């Protein structure tokens, strides 16, 4: 049975805070008065103003509780009902216009309960607005209900006085069994969400994260909802316990409940028709349109939900777009794209710069007795058309999966790989380095695109967008001995050698074959183990090419860090360069913490400081991100130096002028090859007869898809190559390396 309470009419609009939760000596407006910062001096109505208001068919339970500013015009208030303490700012005879919506300033045909209004607002046909603080120049038109409860939390995962723990709102990220649940809060960064979901074996750390979240807010009851200056809300049905920033635009939303909508003049947020949003945080500059559904969610800044997308128990990182499809129980780092109605993402950690194609299903829990599976995908994850993946699976950086149903769990440690399901031979096929061999255009353009589209105002976390970075290079480093091992095994099998050998001996055989570029490698059937949870073969192809490509990339990575170091520190001599290089260059693991790459050792220190109480709140955690961002350039340089020493046994700290010169010149060769591949991978589309066949003439094709020679990105990269060559030659002269003659041997 519905419980409908009956109370005296004269109590409507009063006793907002239950007496049990009202501090001694305080009235029900004490928090409201702290929230109001518009600087308006309110006064009581004059007898004449009351007379005009009554004549215009307005009512109030007590005219003494309707306070106004000195510039109040009673003629602009018509057919309204006021209950409780209502304060109204300046009303002047103007109309406000926004996107062809024109409405006169004032209050018309509305019911207002205990609210504060700034100057020159429009409140027209608002059936019910209760306990809100509204800024200046706000337009509210055709809204059914805008209300705040005394226990409002605005999407933050906290409790108010007297509330039981079991009503707390948790976000169940990365796993459907709620084993990685976290609390949302206004200002949560993707790094915060990652740390909270990842380190689940440290109860003290998890409790501290919960304490940090509760510390950001107090448990007091009685906070009012707020609507910032110049916000426009029209044709919306229900807004309950919603905090809205300035310059937001809400039109036609069905229901928004327990949500913070961040918006500002620099980064305004829009919510469109048919949206239903419950228990969430929306960042600055977001767009939500056309029937999207989001429940228990965080939408980080400058992200979009469109065309019926469903985002449930998930965190979507900055600069991301999800259209049409369904995303459940996932933690998604910045720069994610998912545009298709029939794609599905569930129980996954997707570490950014990712793209979900149409028909992709990531993943299915049907291979487990309970919904507790997970998928972890490194940066650049790209499941292709109609890809179906099973939990648990794990992928290295920049993995792309060809169309197919992958029936068992996968663990792919090779970065930049194409993974395909060869049904004719019943085998999994992995091509390491695919992106560089066949799709350099997309790889390079995506790296540039993410930088260009990073619209974040708050850059507390320094995001890494380059495809060569500590995470992907570490993947390269772990791939080299694997390629050696699998090659050694394949050679021994071909030779019929059944002698029992240690793994080190097998690796040594493969290393010799690969380093000497022995032609026999191209004749071997190289198989991997541990890549798929099945008994069928996993074949590695293009092994020789991938092996030497990976080594070349490690060297190129070093040169890029050296160039950045030289530019940043205005280094003028070879001696100065050597002296400025970091002394500690041991290889170490890194973590992708919400799109920011941080040394694992630093994360361990952070966690320890959190547990011991040295780091006391989320602000201190965010300060840690900032500090790590400041350290990143030197730490990345140290990592690159260590990587080259690991692969080539070259000590860059002791590199002679001739070796440094050779390093720089070799990078030109790599850069030239990359730019050539950028052009060639795009040119294939123009040479493909099956692409050309839908056009009668080459001119028609060029009109539709544009001329290859006019491609702005290719022209940009070709120009950058010429500048790169010029910079390298100038640098060789500047560092006085031009007389050094020895060449670097890398194989």
UniProtKB/TrEMBL annotation:
Residues 583-734 form the DUF6819 domain. It holds the Pfam family DUF6819. It comes from the Bacteria. InterPro entries: DUF4954 (IPR032533), DUF6819 (IPR049208), Trimer_LpxA-like_sf (IPR011004). Residues 42-485 form the DUF4954 domain. This is DUF4954 family protein. It comes from Niastella soli.
